[in-house]
Amino acid sequence: MAMHKRILRALRNVPTRRNLFGPVDREQLQLEYRDALRKDLEEASRRWSFDFVSETPLEGGDFQWEGVSGEKVPVLYRAGQEGKHPRLRVGKENIPRTPERFSAVPQDVEKTPEKSTELKRKQTNITDFYQAKKRVVATPGKSGQ
């Protein structure tokens, strides 16, 4: 009994942790990650006939790739937009953008359509399209019918 008390006293000072799979081998994890990424890129290259590493189309594929000017691409997909418009950083302090702080809106940003101020239409029910009928529970038939 004294042995159990000593063990319990020793465990009181140590926080409880779960180590289900043993310590993490960071080098092995990095190798497996790079291998999985390489396989995914190879599969995507075969599927889309495009080399995503060098960003060039591959010959003899099912697709014909052509370049598009930056003006025809939506703002979301344009490269190099991070430097022009600072994004909100995720962290301890996440202050939303307010008109007072960010009053200058860039001209090349696509605007979303404004929501109408009309009342919204009530969601329809299936009974709006047909009249609900009560079902009669089947009763045992009379003998002879």
From TrEMBL:
Ranges of biased composition (kind: Basic and acidic residues): 91-100, 108-119
GO molecular function, one term: cyclin-dependent protein serine/threonine kinase inhibitor activity
A Pfam family recorded for this sequence: CDI
GO biological process: DNA damage response; regulation of G1/S transition of mitotic cell cycle; signal transduction by p53 class mediator
InterPro entries: CDI_dom, CDI_dom_sf, CDKN1A
Boundaries of every Cyclin-dependent kinase inhibitor domain copy: 19-68
Start and end residues of each stretch annotated as Disordered: 91-119
Lipid metabolism among keywords: no
Gene Ontology CC terms: cyclin-dependent protein kinase holoenzyme complex; nucleus
Entry keyword set: Protein kinase inhibitor
Domain of life: Eukaryota
Similarity field: Belongs to the CDI family.
Protein name: Cyclin-dependent kinase inhibitor 1-like
Gene name, Swiss-Prot/TrEMBL: cdkn1a
